[in-house]
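Changelog note: in this version the structure field was regenerated for every chain. One regenerated record is shown below for reference.
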Amino acid sequence: MPKVLLVAEKPSVAGKLAKALGNYSVFKNYGVTNYKLDTELGELIIAPAVGHMYSLEQKSDGWDYPVFDVEWVPAYESDNSAKYVKKYVNNMKKVAEGADYFINGCDFDIEGSVIGFNAIKFSGGDDAEIKRMKFSTLTDSDLQEAFNNLNEFDSGQTEAGITRHVLDWYYGINLSRALINAVKSQNRYKSLSTGRVQGPALKVLADKERDIEKFEPEDYWEIYLYSQGLEAQHVEDKFWDEEKAKKVVEICGDSDAVVASVNRRKYKHNPPVPFNLTGLQKAAYRQFNINPKQTQQIAHNLYESSLISYPRTSSQKLPAKLGYKSIITKLKKQDDYEELAGKLLDMKKLSPRQGKKKDEAHPAIHPTGLAPSKNLSKKERKVYDLIVKRFFATFGKPAVRQSLKIRLDVNGEEFDAKGKKTLERNWYNLYEPYVKTKEVELRKVEKGQKISVDRIEMVDKETQPPKRFTQSSLVSELEKKELGTKATRAQIVDSLYNRKYIKESSLKVTDLGMAVVESLEENCPEILSPELTRNFEEEMERIRNGDTSREDVLKKAEDTLKDVLKKFKDREEEIGKGLVEAVDSQRKRENQLGPCQECENGTLRIIRTKNGRFVGCSSYPECDNSYPLPRKGKIKGLKNACEECGKPRIKVSRKGRKPYYMCIDPDCPTKDDWD
């Protein structure tokens, strides 16, 4: 009987595969649980990976750049935090012994292809036959269908995935070393990084920061008419000439207004399209203020719980083969969705609105119909509800809205009052409470009617600078510019935070972030070019289709990096000076906590010495005001001063424990109940 090894991406998924495919027995190696089944294919062993069990590492010694000699090694050899991976690597090698062929049962995307292939290759299956499972949900029926209809080895996708990993290593390692070595040239050390996508992403933010800095506000005026609850704005909208605006107010005087026209228009508001990952991330941020990285992780948890389809998809389409009626019928059994599902099942035809974006691997995100357990967290329940309601809404009829525009004439000056209301809610009812519409009712008037004017008001305003990106809008912008992948964009944003290149929820580039961008712009602008990154993404697609090879693409990357890094290395000291200045400036700003209350000119700041740290005044020795600080934990100053005593407050973060917030003054009343 042939022996077949099926590699699952995680232990939890291995268990779901075993449950779906039939009667199984359990055995363990090194504490890792495996499953054995008798199937038509032969003796089937299901063994788990734990995500990427192998990572890239430099072959040779040394820390110089450029470097391109790279190899795959077990993750626990290159990362101390991955020691737990060792037992899974050893287990995979043991169960692979004597296997006649292999099945990659990891997620059907580029990362899943690499995870499964490396697990097989480095467990002795380098030249073995490999089949591929393709599924979009972890329900029993989908897993059974995928197993009974195995695909051929996805060699193109696997090659593209391996190439992307090597490319990202080339760029990340070499460019990061260049930045760190530049700082080292000034006898300093600072851990810096950039990469193939991280650099262009940071430049997008830096360009926005420059637009904001160079923005000069312009004054303008708006004129409003108020009449018994009716608000209308002058048709000219913005007046850039104050005298012209004053003249309009003067012409209007205390005269009545005449209704010049009343225009009503009915229009349809179509249902939303199904969620892809970016769409879900945007909606979760808007509705719940959950950041894109958290949303991605939550969605993956829901997928692994068999509650939704695979979330890392670009698709906005729900193919009919999903079985709309079957999913909605299952959802009807859940108390929260019984009524809404019933309304859909009463419809003569179930036809969802489809979006334009496609994904060959997976459909749009949708619920499976299975009921969630009571173990879901609050955030998981929120995101699950959002996905279910969005799925429902795509099947709804368009809502019917009415717009109303009333034009008023005052001595020849025209004003418009605008209103909107919903006449037929339709899909709105299926998407509550996530529908955001503006309802503005206007009083009834008729053409030719004369109405009294309560007042004419001229309001002075000024133009506002461009808005900074949020995490959600940056992920959308990266998608628009084709930077990164649906799976990596949220992680890129997280990396920019971790490196202290950006801060705050409205993404502001720090001094250090700007210094990194400026260094790269001046010395290797190609690295920040979205076009270069897009070009390599296109090359990856060509690898997937068999139109080029990994070797050719990596050779182009080597040649590009050698050229730009040579220029960078020639100016290492000069670049280092700029980076060190930015590091020092940022550190100084982070250490400042606010004005000193004991003297007129000093600033309270965090001071670190060999003997510990404390808060002291910048005017020392003239002012010796000081406060002790906790001995352990990372300290960050807070914007809001203590409400009790007015002194600065800090946040203290400790590894593995919840952060706490405190006033720096030991005698503050807020600490009266402290032990």
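Spot check on this record: DSSP finds 20 helices and 25 strands in the chain. The chain has a mean pLDDT of 94.
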